[in-house]
Design a protein that fits this description.
The complex is a heterodimer.
Chain A: E1 3-5, E2 15-19, H1 26-37, E3 41-46, E4 56-60, E5 63-68, E6 72-79, E7 82-89, H2 103-119, E8 124-133, E9 143-147, H3 153-157, E10 162-163, H4 180-190, E11 194-203, H5 214-228, H6 235-253, H7 257-264, H8 282-302
Parallel strand pairs in A: 2-7, 2-8, 8-11, 9-10
Antiparallel strand pairs in A: 1-3, 3-6, 4-5, 6-7, 9-11
Chain B: E1 8-10, E2 19-25, H1 32-44, E3 47-52, E4 65-66, E5 69-70, E6 75-80, E7 85-90, H2 97-112, E8 114-125, E9 136-139, H3 142-148, E10 159-160, H4 169-179, E11 183-192, H5 201-215, H6 222-241, H7 243-253, H8 260-275
Parallel strand pairs in B: 2-7, 2-8, 8-11
Antiparallel strand pairs in B: 1-3, 3-6, 4-5, 6-7, 9-11
Classes of the chains: A alpha/beta, B alpha/beta.
Amino acid sequence: MGVRLYREPQLESPILIASWPGIGNIGIIAVDTLREMVRAEEIGEIEPWDFFYPKRVSIRHGELKSLEFPGSKFYLGKAGGKDLVFFIGEEQPAEVGKAYAEGTKAYRMANLVLDVAIKLGCRRIYTSGAAVAPIHHTVRPKVWAVPNSEELIDEVNSYENVVLMSEIDGGGGQGNITGLNGLLLGVARKRGIDAICMMGEIPIYFQDFPLPYPKASKSVLEVLSVSLGIELEMQGITAIVERSEGEIERLYESFPSEIREELDKLKYVTHTRAIDQEPITEEDKNRILEDIDKFFKRESKED
Amino acid sequence: MLSHKPPFRIYRKPELLSSSLVVGWSEDAGKLGSKVIDYLCKKLKCTEFAEIEPADFFPLAGVSVEDDVAQFPESKFYYCQQKNLVILKSSSPRYEWYRFLDSVLDVAEHYCHTTELYTIGGMVSPSAHTAPRDLFAIANSMEMKDVLSQYDLARDFDYETPTGQRPTISSYLLWLAKKRNMAASSLWVPVPFYLVSTEDPRACRKTVEFLDRRFGLGIDLAELDDEVAVQNQKIAQVRVNFPDIDNYIQRLESSLGLAHEENETLLKEIEGFLRKKD
């Protein structure tokens, strides 16, 4: 019980790119899109029994034909001469009523993923998730990057459209990455493997909606492309982003007009120290964020 | 890390050959699972012989209170030597479902030589309490389907888990039994929605009647007939006192649907009346 690898390929310094679902499915969309781009093939899986409750039963003519579990699969592809191993978890092995994995099961799953990474000789790991930020949805999302060692900071800092946690206003370089997209980073550090988590920004007002936010996935893919040193055709993800924009705009239009007026001011808010001049004052920014917070708290109570 | 020690305790080892296991879940529509199991245990004078320890499978962050009484998760095995029957009455686990169900099958296979398994379940139905109850059966193999074909069961239907829902714990158990080549079937009886949180003795009777025939138990069903009659009388009294309720039930009897508010009223009135202490 544990991992089943269908084959054990000989690889040259492969890189593992892993993701589980989270807010806006930003990480999973980015990683799955990349997996499709490089036509990666399934090479193994983590057996689901210890981690998941089944997701679907199929009964035909009164006979139970199949019981499906959420998948936790490994794939192998090649791009720009580099071997890329993917891990995609369809669900986080969370306890009942929780969205994110934690505790023993999460730790066990992270270690199983790393067992495979080590077995295949992976020299680096990328994970991806979401960064909830006070941005407007018409703005290009940045990518918050968290490495698991100091040696990686200069490299991460050199990427365009990327911010470190120390560049986020009020953060002081601190923060949390919830669930397995974060935990894998820590377990990789414990086991001596370099890892970076790339988190695409999602507007603060969309964080509680079950809405994919591929615009941020595209930002993550752009950074991954540079970091991996491979050229990626972005038409596919661009088309996904364009298709999603109508739905996002409709959701936005459903907010009361006075709230939209407040939210529109986020177009001029910067939350990182990278930009020298702020178009609105710090005081204005804090007031907007407080108003938004109050609105969504009131909305959730009204639900 | 998880303990490798089996999570069950065996108090005594039954001497059974090719036994059958009947599983009833405590949290069930119309209390069907626990009611059927309690009736079988009482009538067959079953002996408790094993239990699954709750610590790995339930939150145990306190106790729930139902009908004024503190509850605690239980997973107890009983057997009836004479009828070669094993019975499990259990709460549905909250965690580690695979390990829990695997333990159920370990006890059945290794200590009782079980070769056939049945689960019991109620399903919420928009029907009236006066409607005859059908018994639906899902088999985990063609062989089991052949066995069931000898009985008057609804057993030729298709089903896929709807989006946003999950399979039942009974389906999970059937699938695990299939992996062990153990024949298994889940039995389902529709329970009128306004009896879901109280009791449905008619659904219980339908299930016990099938098990009685299947295993040649020779069980007296008179007590269940009495319970059906008492419940019918009580609901009839509500119908006399409350014309609206009578109208709602009449419409259900004519296979007509009710509006959401009508459903709510019917459910509230009948539940309230049936819960009253005599």
